[in-house]
Amino acid sequence: MERRCSTLLVLLSLLATVPAAAMTQRYAATLEEARWQVERGTGECGLVHDIPRLGRVRFHQRSGRPLEFTLGVALSPDRHDVARVAAVPPPWKHDAMPRELGTLRIDRSVQPIHAGRTLARRLLMELEQGMFTEFHYRDWADARDEVTVVVSPVRFREVLPAFQDCVAGLIQLDFDPLAEYFIPFRTDSYRLHRLTRRQLDRIVAQYRKRGDVGRIVVGGHADERGTEPYNEVLARKRAEEIRRYLVSRGIPYSRIEVRSYGERWPANPGKDPQALAENRRATIWFTE
Question: Of 168, 192, 212, which residue sits at a domain end?
C-alpha cells in the first residue's frame, strides 16, 4: 500500500512539471450556417459572412477606393499580433493543395484583421474557386491556444455576381493615390477664396517636399442641385481653376490632369446643408 501511494505521488509530481498542452480554438460556420450577403449603399458595396461565436468578415469597396477585407469582432484584442493566412481546399478536392497567402497584422480594434486591395482580391478569387480561407494566430487572452478562423466558400458563388454588379456601378480610379486632399467650394461657384488658396499653398509645399509624385490628378465635384449636364461643367471648372492655381505656383502644366465627376460621386449621401457643402468640392490626388 505504501509503495502504491509513493508511486502515485511520483506520477502526480511529474504531471505537475509538464506544461499543459495548447488547445485549438476553431471558429467556422457549418455547411448549414454558411451564408453570404450583399450590402448596397450610396457609393459603396459590401459582401459579408458571419462567423458564429466570433464576428463577421466583410469585403467592402467604395467609389474611388480599392477593395478591402476586414474581420470584425465584438471584443478587440488586448495586444498586437500577426495572423497567418492560408487557402485550404475542401475535403472533396483531393487534387488541390493548401496555399500560404502571407501574414497580416492583428490590431487592437474591433476590426483587428484588415487586408488591402492585393490580398483582398486574392481572397475573393480563392473563395470563388471553392477554397476555404483560414487565419491562424495565438489566442487574444494569454496566447496559450492556437486559433483558427475559417471563411467558408459555401454559397459564395450564388451572391458573387450581385456583388460584382454593385462594384461595377462604382467610380473606379485607374491609379493608386499616394495622398489625397479635399478643396471646398461655395454654392454654384468655381472661384478660389483666400482660405482655399492658403490650403492649396500647403498642398504645393507637400508636393515639393515629396520626391515620389509623378502626377497630380484633380477631380471636380458638384452637389445634386441643378441639372446633370450643368453640374458636369461646373465640376470641371472647379478642377480647371485649381490646375491654373497650381501652375501659377510653379507646378508644370503637363503634370496635372483634370477630371470631372459632376454629381456622380457624393462624399456625403445626405440631403441636408452639411451634406451638400461636403459634396461641393474638388479632390487632389498625388500619384506616381
Answer: 168
Using the predicted structure, report yes or no on whether residue 19 has a pLDDT greater than 80.
Answer: no
User: Cell match 500560404: residue?
Assistant: 100
The CATH number that applies at residue 260 is 3.30.1330.60
pTM of the model: 0.76
Structural domain for 135, as ranges: 23-168
Condensed to tens digits (0 to 9), the pLDDT of residues 176-198 reads 899 999 999 999 999 999 999 99
Q: Which runs of E-coded beta strand occur in 139-222?
A: 146-151, 179-184, 215-220
* Average of per-residue pLDDT across 97-115: 94
Domain-embedded: residue 119: yes
Number of H helices, E strands in the chain: 6, 14
Q: Is residue 1 part of a domain?
A: no
**Max alpha carbon distance in the chain (Å)?**
100
* Cα distance between the two ends of the chain: 83
Whether residues 249 and 219 share a domain: the answer is yes
Of 207, 208, 216, which is closest to residue 259 (Cα–Cα)?
216
In 3D, which of 211, 285, 197, 215 has the Cα closest to residue 256? 215
Confidence at residue 10, expressed as pLDDT on a 0 to 100 scale: 38
Is the pLDDT assigned to residue 208 strictly greater than 90? yes
